Amino acid sequence: MWKPARLLGALALAALFGPHAASAQGADPARINAASTTAQQAPSCKRLGDFYWEIGDATGVLGSGQVGSDYGPNTSIKIASASKWVFGAYFVQKVAQPSAEQVQELEMKSGHTKFNPVKCVFSRTVDGCFTAGDNSTVQAENIGHFSYGGGHSQKLALELGLGGMNSEALTREIMGTLGVSGLSYGHPQLAGGLEGTPAAYAAFLRKIVSGQLRMKQYLDYAPVCTLPGSCPGAVYSPAKAAWHYSLDHWIEDDPGNGDGAFSSPGAFGFYPWIAADKSTYGVLARQKMSATAYVESVDCGVLIRKAWFSKAPVLR
Q1: In what side-by-side order are the strands of the sheet with 183-185?
Q2: What is the pTM of this model?
Q3: Which tens digits make up the pLDDT trace of 275-292?
Q4: Residue 52: which of 39, 33, 69, 66 has the closest Cα?
Q5: Lateral strand order in the sheet of 271-274
Q6: Which of 31, 86, 113, 197 has a CB 3.0–4.6 Å from the CB of 147, allowing a cystine?
Q7: Bridge partners, residue 284, by sequence
């Protein structure tokens, strides 16, 4: 069953829904209808099954909806690789001007390309995760070349002095620095260990678009070409499009159909994004064990974003 967003007065919304209420200034019935119709009817979205979507700006939620009943703004899910964006934001909040070497690590060019996140599931500390198996191995031939994976962030966390932290301490440090609640580390892996609610992640994105976090100024910093075969030296990318990568986030700028949005899709289908103009954010939330869950969520989420900005349903 599809549940559309409600359009009420600002005071009534605040009383009923608190901070998750729609912003009175920005709520646009045409945009909400276009996004909702797309989420409900577009073939790329129908194949997802149940999911929750939300779009907002610095002032709050502008529109949201549920397809089915399994997911809502307060449903806890594993956000997997969307953890990377959170760690990147934490890093630039702590280090206002990253060094060239740190940028290399944030852009996945450090050569730490043998990292296996499965080996971190039972690790007690950040350092334990990094040293499990051959996770800390540096492949010299990959230094300076983009290769997507979690080892880069894990190594950078050690440089920041987080090595001895367990999941609870890591959560306190990172979420305390960012001023975010509702997200926590299930295991001490910076690039994929977070879980929490769509509402909590959306609050994090609002902090970026409002300029409360430095990440806003780094959203398109020193973009790196990522697609093997098209980019000189690129080793591995899970994206099937010619996207670029910046500091722990993607830039959806494929020349064929990209719109320049910034994002960080998670393996289980959680898809957060910020529009190219850095003023609007969105999430598509679900959790599914599938090799293609993240690609399918991106396909649907991009259509919902396009419908929102064009004020017309996109039904393909």
Answers
A1: 77-78, 194-196, 183-185
A2: 0.91
A3: 999 999 999 999 999 999
A4: 66
A5: 2-3, 60-67, 51-57, 280-285, 271-274, 261-263, 250-252, 244-245, 224-225
A6: 113
A7: 53, 271
